[in-house]
Amino acid sequence: MRPDPELLREVTRIAELVVLSAGAGLAAVQLLRPGLAIRGLALFVGLGGFYAGTWLWDVADWAPGPALLGQPLMPPIVGALGVCLLVKLAALGAAGPRW
User: Fold this and answer.
1) Residues 6+ apart with CB under 8 A from 99
2) Which residues of 57-66 are buried (b: 16+ CB within 10 A; e: fewer)?
3) What residues pair up with 71 in beta bridges, in sequence order?
4) Which of 13, 33, 36, 50 could cross-link to 21 by cystine, CB 3.0-4.6 Å?
């Protein structure tokens, strides 16, 4: 039985998106240090950032910039930084006052 080429292309595209999102999320988590020790946080931040960044770029109609693996780099990185910032603010709010 031979695998369907269309299915293989889709699986490859999704794997590229996950790798790019995980890299953007890891960079955002390392840069902003949200203060949470949750397994998979970088992947969550990266996937959320990929969605949020792509949406922002579409709304603002900005140029996507350089590409890696066929996907633009700037939207997922900026989106991951934004999502990580929201996670950090939520963690600070959940910690309560520090006085």
Assistant:
1) none
2) beeeeeeeee
3) 68
4) 50
d(CA 26, CA 31): 8
Per-residue pLDDT of the chain (99 residues), as tens digits, is: 788 999 999 999 999 999 999 999 999 999 999 988 899 999 999 999 999 999 999 999 999 889 988 889 999 999 999 999 999 999 999 988 877
Are 16 and 71 in contact by the 8 Å Cβ rule? The answer is yes
pTM, full prediction: 0.87
